[in-house]
Request: fold
Amino acid sequence: MRNHSDSMCILIALLIWVAVNVADAWWIYFFVQACVDPNPHTAVNRTHSGFEGYEAMMFIFGFPWGIVNLVVVYWHYSQVTNSGRINSSTCTRMLLVLYSIFIFLPVALALVILPFFGGWIVVPVAQQYAWDHRCDSYPMYAILDAKSYYDARYVTNVAYFYLNPSQEQVFTYEIANPGDADIWTFSLRDWNTDQGAIPLDAYPTLQQVTYDFVDDSLSGNCTVPTSSAAANSTTLTSPCMTGTFDPGNVLSFNITSSVPLNNTLASNTTSAATPSSTSSVLRAQDKGWTFSDDAPSLILRLVNPLHDTLGLIVLRTAVTRPHDSTELKVCLAGVQGGNEVGAQVMAPLGLILMRQADYALYATRPSDDD
Reply:
């Protein structure tokens, strides 16, 4: 009777041990997901402080639980080796060696190391995959490259734009503060490929966005070439965007724009030269998009003004480059039937680059021990 009772106790303890390890695995999984795919928000990262508490508790619990697993692993291995010594045939010893190397050792390392170090080990691997593939289904993406704490003052914060699926870099924009602390611009810095090779819907005619932080207003100028001949190419610049933005907890934009296509690339130059004015309301899907100790993170969607409901994705942040917190990848969808780098993309992107610049300085500053 006592042996039966002991067996039941061992079985119950084993089931509890398995259940806790499964729960801990899910704990780590949701942590990794919140790190590399934080949008849309889940219960884990609905608030930034809540996520930090979730992370802290995961590591606090993981350390003693790793010790518990170490004790269990040691007990199991001692039982197996003792059994192998009793039945000490050559075949049994060989099977024991193979079991120890190919089954026991990997499982034991996972049980002991992952509860405490799992987040640190898995997140960089998942982050690299997200960096490489998060934007694969989008027509374009941008890499926001902010300067670090150690960069010289003349280094600028820039956004590099790429085409999918070729991953060809096509042009670069930069953030500048022309003297007034409340006025910032996001403007074309350089062409990285022949302008004639850029697809019509990926050609950036909105070449300067101005942000006024006194009244949170926007304005933009469009520049279009008036001739396709490189030798005597001329351009025409004119206002093409106005609007307002709310950089608060729920990022939003209200934009009126008439961004033209590049006439020299369009098959119908008459219709391309006279774009109709459109109004767009954009809003982040979740509350909380910028943080003092983390990179900007959001999904920005069009808003149906009649029903105040979120529609198609305009852009979304991916992840920072692994081991380089100064670079943030952003997937660009644009608006359906419009320019992929029109006002609905470029206006928010400049503001996101400003906040990425703030985070890059924070993340690369020297520690108190340096």
